[in-house]
Structures are given as C-alpha cells and as structure tokens.
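Title: Comparing notes on inverse folding

I've been comparing how different people in this forum approach sequence design from structure. To keep things fair, I'm posting one structure and asking everyone to reply with a full sequence. Here's the target:
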C-alpha cells in the first residue's frame, strides 16, 4: 500500500520484504522463500552499490517542466551529468564543511532562486543528499517560503543514500513526493484515458506500448517518466492506471488509487508475444475496447509469423541473464521461446511476490545459479567466468565489465524489449552478437587485469552473511 500522507515512502525492504544479497541455486532460494521466508543478508564487502538518490535522479530528470535542486556537496549531483533522454535543468547547492555544521539554508535558497531565474519551470524538486540528512537540515522552511514567492510547487524528495540497500526505493521516494506535493487536478470526473505507469522503462518501449493501445482505440499517457508536470497532475483524472513492471509501478498505482480513486490494473510485464497479447487485451477490456485489442494482437501475431523464420538465433546457445526480477523472468520466457538455454540468473532484488516465478524455475532447472545484487562487479565476473555462457543479457553498466570477459553482451538499455517490437529487436540483436563476437574477443585480449586470480578464486558468496537481528 502507498500512504501518501506519510512524510516519505518506506524502503522496499519494509514495504515488500525485498532482499538485495544472495548467491546460490534457484532451488535453495525457492526453498527459503516458500519456507520461513526470505532472509535479509548483508555484504561484509561491497565493491559498488547504486543508491536511492541515484534512482530518484534517473526518474526526475526525465520529467519535462521540472527543475531539480540537489541539496548537498557538488559531487552528489554527478549522476545528473549523464542519462537517457530529456535532462531536466538542475543546480546543486554546493554546501561545504561549514554549511554542514551551521546549516545550508542560505545556499539552498540561492540555488532555488538561480534555477527559477534561468528556466521557466512548472515545479522544482529539492532532492536531499546524505550530508544534509545526517545533519538534519531543515529544508521545509526554505521551500515553503519560496513556493509562495515563485508561484510554483517546490517539492521535497527525501532521499538519503544509506537508509536502504535496494536502490529502487528511490523511485518510490520520487513518486511519493510528486503525488503528495503537486496540486490536485480539477474535479470532477475522470477522462477516458489510461495512465501508463513508466518508472524505469526506456522511452522507446513506453512509446511502443502507447502506440499499441492507440491502435486499440485507447488513449494513454506515460507518467511519471517521460511525462510533463501537467501530465502528472492530470494523472488523478485518468480512468485507469496500468503497470508495466509491477515491482516499479505498484507504488504509483496505489498512490493514485488512494488519493484520487483511479483504478489500478496490475499485470505481468508485456515482454514476449503471449505476455504482450495478454497485457493488451486486459487493458482493452478494462477500457471497453476488448474486441479492438484482440484484433490488434492478431494483426501483430500475423506479422511476427512472417518474420519469425528470420529471427531464430543459434539453437541452445547458453545465456546468462541479469536484470530486475520481473523483466528477468519475462526475458527468460522470451529467450526460451527463441530456443536458447539459460545458464545463470542475476536479479537486482527479489521478494516474496516473485515466488511463483522462483517455483517454476526451481522445478524446471533446480541447479540454476542465482545471484541477487546490483553493482557488484566482482560477484558477476566471478560467477560468469565459472558458467562460461555464450551470451550475456543485462542492462546498463553491467554490460561494460561483463563484455571484457570475451563474451558477447546484449545491453537492453539500448535495445527495446517490450511488446511485439521487442521480440523482433531482441532476436535480431542476439543473432548478430552470436554470429560476430569480435568486439568481445578484442576487449578480452586487453592485458589489463581488473582482478587477481587469487581474488577470483574465492567463492562468489564468501562475504554475504545473514543479517544479525
């Protein structure tokens, strides 16, 4: 549930019971999940780990009409230097040692005013950093005063960088802030429109799903990712909210339902032909467009049937998949349908809500190696070296260090994989990478060794320990 009246969103550990550290087999993980429940674990060593602050930035920077003020030292804004798609204007308050002791109100005020003077904005988000959270800097007095002065909402996004080991908690924090502090839309009455709840998906994937709904006669707006501030305000007037990845969109869907009464339809991820058809028909049916949605599904299936003979990658090639949980399970189904075998699985997090998928995998491939975590390059390199798959399917930074192992990598941050187009694009990308692995081989020939053999000889999970209560 999402309680929009609370100061901020709870962490994913508290809200969903997610864990972010595990190494073992899928059967052992399923046995734990189906028994006493998943146990929280800690890493006594962590090479790297994304934070809730970074995930909040990744979402907020895509929203048009929004300006971002990072309240903290200059380095806390480094993540905003790069990212996908539109980049919201931003400034950083740049507090120093003295400000961290005496208070950074003066610098925060100056940063907000500078941003408002340089850009015409519909809202401003003030994102807190670990330093100001530790020092309990009061941002409310400054933001409330300037909201009145500037005539635009100034929204507190209360991230801290250390409260959670699940970086995606930052998505919930950003969503909570937007729906709590933006003005309520004009009432009455709902519009005959769908909120397509995009939180971490690519712009191309979101656009494809919107176009499929449009073919079925359903009007949809992607929010909050890729939307305008006005779209987010109007989200409370929509007739229905629909999930893409329910792990990410659940908080937004529940927040809209609790605050505005917007119905929320939580569906499996639309990856692969069958899952996309089921998703499309479910949304169409909820919007009284069931027949049109069924017709769109049949049309795209016929088109895929024509292309399918040209899409098949080499049979039984072994693939290691490392993605967020729900997309990972859906991609496994897609790869299996394409005739590929799964060599190992990496998940950023896992929770009890994934039990049905864990059970199915445990029954099919009980010895399948599973690694749970994000940003731990040593763990991934260690495990993948042992498994020696023919291909790695992942997203984002992991693609870089895994490619250096000499194994072709498909980075789904650059290749759309949702919907019907995803089937074509993924199959084509896999076939090309398996047919021509020269880039991976070239990078593997580098003399630079990132890890010693002694280090890599250790167990993948020697430093993952059960959390002491």
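Reply #1:
Here's my take.
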């Amino acid at each position: 549930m999402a309680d929009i009246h609370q100061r901020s969103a709870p962490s994913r550990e508290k809200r969903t019971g997610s864990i972010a550290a595990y190494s073992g087999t899928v059967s052992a993980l399923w046995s734990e999940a189906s028994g006493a429940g998943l146990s929280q674990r800690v890493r006594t060593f962590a090479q790297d780990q994304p934070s809730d602050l970074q995930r909040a930035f990744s979402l907020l920077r895509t929203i048009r009409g929004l300006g971002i003020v990072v309240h903290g030292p200059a380095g806390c804004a480094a993540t905003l230097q790069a990212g996908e798609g539109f980049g919201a204007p931003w400034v950083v308050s740049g507090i120093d040692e003295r400000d961290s002791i005496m208070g950074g109100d003066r610098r925060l005020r100056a940063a907000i005013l500078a941003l408002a003077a340089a850009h015409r904005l519909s809202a401003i988000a003030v994102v807190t950093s670990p330093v100001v959270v530790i020092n309990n800097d009061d941002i409310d007095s400054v933001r409330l005063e300037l909201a009145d002065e500037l005539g635009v909402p100034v929204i507190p996004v209360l991230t801290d960088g250390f409260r959670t080991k699940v970086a995606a908690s930052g998505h919930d924090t950003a969503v909570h802030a937007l729906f709590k502090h933006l003005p309520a839309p004009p009432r009455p009455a709902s519009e005959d429109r769908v909120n397509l709840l995009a939180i971490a998906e690519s712009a191309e994937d979101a656009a494809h799903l919107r176009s499929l709904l449009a073919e079925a006669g359903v009007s949809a707006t992607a929010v909050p990712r890729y939307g305008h501030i006005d779209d987010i305000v109007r989200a409370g007037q929509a007739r229905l909210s629909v999930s893409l990845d329910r792990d990410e969109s659940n908080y937004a869907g529940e927040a809209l339902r609790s605050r505005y009464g917007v119905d929320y339809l939580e569906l499996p991820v639309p990856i692969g032909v069958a899952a996309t058809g089921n998703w499309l028909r479910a949304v169409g049916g909820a919007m009284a467009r069931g027949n049109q949605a069924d017709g769109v599904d049949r049309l795209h299936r016929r088109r895929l049937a024509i292309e399918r003979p040209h899409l098949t990658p080499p049979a039984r090639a072994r693939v290691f998949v490392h993605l967020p949980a729900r997309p990972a399970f859906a991609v496994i189904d897609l790869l299996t349908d394409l005739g590929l075998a799964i060599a190992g699985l990496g998940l950023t997090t896992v929770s009890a809500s994934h039990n049905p998928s864990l059970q199915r995998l445990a029954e099919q491939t009980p010895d399948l190696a599973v690694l749970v975590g994000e940003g731990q390059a040593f763990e991934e390199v260690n495990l993948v070296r042992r498994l020696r798959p023919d291909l790695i399917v992942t997203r984002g930074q992991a693609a870089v260090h895994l490619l250096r192992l000499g194994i072709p990598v498909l980075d789904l941050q650059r290749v759309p994989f949702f919907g019907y187009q995803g089937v074509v694009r993924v199959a084509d990308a896999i076939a090309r990478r398996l047919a021509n692995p020269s880039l991976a081989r070239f990078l593997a020939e580098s003399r630079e060794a990132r890890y010693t053999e002694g280090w890599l000889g250790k167990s993948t999970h020697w430093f993952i320990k059960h959390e002491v209560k």
